[in-house]
Amino acid sequence: MSSSWPLWEVFVRGKRGLNHVHVGSLHAPDAEMAVRNARDVYTRRNEGVSIWVVPAAAITASSPDEKDPFFEPSGDKVYRHPTFYEIPEDVPHL
Amino acid sequence: MDLEAQFERTVAAEQRVEPRDWMPDGYRKTLIRQIAQHAHSEIIGMQPEGNWISRAPSLRRKAILLAKVQDEAGHGLYLYAATETLGADRGELTEKLISGRQKYSSIFNYPTLSYADVGVIGWLVDGAAICNQVPLCRTSYGPYARAMIRICKEESFHQRQGYELLMTMMSGTDAQRAMVQESVNRWWWPSLMMFGPPDAESSNTEQSMKWRIKRNTNDELRQKFVDMTVPQARKLGVTLPDPELRWNPERGHHDFGQPDWDEFWQVVGGNGPTNAQRIAHRRKAHEDGEWVRAAAAAHAAKHAVREGVA
Amino acid sequence: MSFDNAYESLIDGHEDAHWAFGTGFAEPLAGVDREVPDVDRADLAAYCLMLGDDALVLSQRLAEWCSRAPELEEDVALANIALDLLGQARMLLTRAGEVEGAGRDEDALAYLRDERDFRNVHLAEIECGPFAGGDFGTTMARLLVFSSWKLAQYSRLRASADPVLAAVAAKGLKELAYHRDHAAQWVVRLGDGTEESHRRVRAGLERVWPFLAELFTPHAVELRLAGVAVDPAELRSEVDGVLDEVLAAAGLTRPADVPAARVNGLAGRDGVHTEAFGYLLAEMQHLHRSLPGAKW
Predict the structure, then answer these.
(1) pLDDT for C54-67, tens place per residue?
(2) Does domain A7-61 have CATH number 3.30.1490.20?
(3) What is the ipTM of this complex?
(4) Where exactly are the structural domains of chain A?
């Protein structure tokens, strides 16, 4: 049997005055490790950054523009959207 | 409204498909396979360069190399996350990798035999990867495109790091210059193979182009890579080992020779210089880590019970 | 970077800002007074080597985990820790060379000294996995002990009469707090997790425990440098307290204190090392030594 850890969604406040923004996801055994892993993976340990981690399974989604009558595996798991807040300013077409 | 028609309209209009949208099964499967292979490539790609961390010739180079290989772990992680938006599971994909059911980029089946290889991988291999990947920042699947933007940004630093190492070595001793040239000789053809077989022999291209999962053909990207690399090689002071390489003013591109496609298929087929070693390394890490993952999961479960959380 | 030419930024520019951890290191200590305090220079240089070698050698060991960790997230975390220690080592070796005044830089000190000139403690150099000498549990046991000890040392070193050592300690303290926390989190999980993990982390603690005593045994250099160096004997009770707390939370008992015997009274701080250390240096130094005069 192979043990795998649950998925967590990571939200980061890049600096004071901004909202927490979804930056991606990761696997961790529990919340304490998830927040530490998030700091290592998504902020490369910048000091002073605020991080939230949320069990992916705890998120309920409403997204009227997305339709998935046939796709069951993800269901309403909107959490499975890795978005990355840091869009380089010099990348066009986004 | 017809879902398939809506999907096709979305893709044709260069809009992004998001995880909960309806999508054809083939699109989902092709994407999972493509992104997983890309993720596996990042993870397996840690090995050839990681091979030199313990022997890096200066402490600055050691820090740069370790940070770079660490970035590759991060890239693999982002990409596995993108597959999970499609209903895949990282653990299952890892099982497929270590049982040989899913592939990774064949380039990582070549060995790193000198420190110049660290620079040449940055310059040529990461350069070829960027050529392949930059168009994917506009790929039709949203999570993949977003992961690629972050990855491309970091890869361009890797490439610059590799080129800078080579420039430094070329300004050093004769032995170092010879080391760089020897490394370029070994990596040039495998780098050209990274774009895949010639278009005439590539099976998946047409459908993938239509779905905007792939944005340019193998031969287009290969040509672009050669055109970009030639002036860089000149500036560096190395010779690319292709007697047929020359500027063609009529085409406005360089003409160049073909890699040894028999060797390519041999490596893809599992008989490359390090295929077995790379997979064994990854399998060992995964299997050796099983008791650790199990322990953390068990602790979390006990803790959840103690806290009264379901 | 544009979509048409990913290469355009390739040749120009040399800024390091994009690296998660600076690859140069002039910056971390920018503005710090580099005056050498009025103490014996040879002693101060030797003390900087002791601290620098501790960090360098453990960094080298931790980097062996790269691509071999139990999960990708942990691979990233271990690389971060190794990079932190490498950064500390570079600042400390540079300071050692500067105080010595013989023109040796960080690389000359890291790559061109022989085994007997290295001053690190044995705990940093012993094998604790992934290749030999243990596993992830042993690695975390070593990291817990090492970082708890270093943290206690650096927190006193902040008051050092050497402004560079004080600055390195102040910066390193945050990093070491993170390393200790990481190790403690894991020791607790492994101690509490499964029977197998409990057994393995217990074996790891037993593996590293004989090397504790050396950490608290002062070297003559440390005693002569009052006001600059930290007397390691003073750290024992603080470190014991931290270890006891973590072990209690992990449901583990403290191994018996049976110190590894020294060799004619000598150990790592005197340049007398374990057998494994010669191999570590052979690997680390061979390329640098085989191309004399090369530029990297």
Answers:
(1) 999 999 999 999 99
(2) no
(3) 0.94
(4) 7-61
